[in-house]
Amino acid sequence: MKLTSPLVATTLFVLATITGCSLAPKADPSQFFVLNPMMENQASASATELDVALGLGPIRIPEYLRRPQMVTRVGPNQVTYAEYDRWAQPLESSFTRVLGENLSGLLGVVDIASHPWFSTIQLDFTVEIEVERFERDPSGAAQLRCMWVIKDGASGDRIDGGQFDQSEPAESETAGGSVAAQSRLLGGLSQEIATAIKRVAAR
User: Fold this and answer.
1) What are phi and psi of 3, to 5 degrees?
2) pLDDT value at 125 more than 70
3) Helix/strand/coil (H, E, C) string of the chain?
4) Pairwise CA distance, residues 149 & 67, whole Å
5) Within 13 Å and on the Cβ side, how many CA atoms surround 3?
6) Is 175 within 8 Å of 146 (Cβ atoms)?
7) Among 9, 20, 185, 194, which is disulfide-ready with 106 (CB 3.0 to 4.6 Å)?
8) Cα 87 to Cα 98: distance, rounded to the nearest angstrom
9) ∠ CA(46), CA(145), CA(84), 5° rounding?
10) 57: alpha, beta or left, given left = phi > 0 and alpha = psi -120 to 50?
11) Dist CA 127 CA 96 (whole Å)
12) pTM of the model
């Protein structure tokens, strides 16, 4: 028995609708995040104007963190990568940018060069950082563990240094809450380094 024309038309319409739905582009659920510097009033509260030229870097990030996806540590030897929570810029670049802005506000130093800089630039001090961990845990809390060193800008000799190892709870279990906690940790590291720079500059 042949299909009548109305039935054929209806069948074709349904097939076209199904095909159209399957081919329609789906919305990208990805979210992109950036680290933020300290609030201006936080930095100005302990700001000291120093007439120094500061070099920032190199700042070394572990290979497992050098990717767009945000990292969650789920065990001592295990991490997972978020499918949709991503950094808007490379973490190393974001870390360096925010640290530089924080130190500039804390020290009143405008002349901060990021590594690599021209060999002709004369620097009073350089700051090098070796990051070991900078991620969140399943609750959203963030951890930053790193070694930092202040060196003489001319000779490259080590002047001061230390280890920063702290955790910061997140206000929410969302990716945004974790990034805010990471930003606060970076602010704490900035304050520790700024205090050391003030100390060596006063010698």
Assistant:
1) -70, 140
2) yes
3) CCCCHHHHHHHHHHHHHHHHHHHCCCCCCCEEECCCCCCHHHHHHCCCCCCCCEEEEEEECCHHHCCCEEEEEEECCEEEEEEEEEECCCHHHHHHHHHHHHHHHHHCCCCEEECCCCCCCCCCEEEEEEEEEEEECCCCCEEEEEEEEEEECCCCCEEEEEEEEEEECCCCCCHHHHHHHHHHHHHHHHHHHHHHHHHHHCC
4) 25
5) 8
6) no
7) 194
8) 14
9) 100
10) left
11) 11
12) 0.82
Strands 54-60 and 125-136, how do they pair? parallel
CA angle 47, 52, 53 (to 5 degrees): 115
Reported as a single tens digit per residue, the pLDDT across 152-192 is 998 999 999 999 999 999 988 889 999 999 999 999 999 99
One-letter amino acid for residue 32 of the chain = F
> Which of the two residues, 73 and 18, has the higher pLDDT score?
73
CATH number 3.40.50.10610 given to 53-201: yes
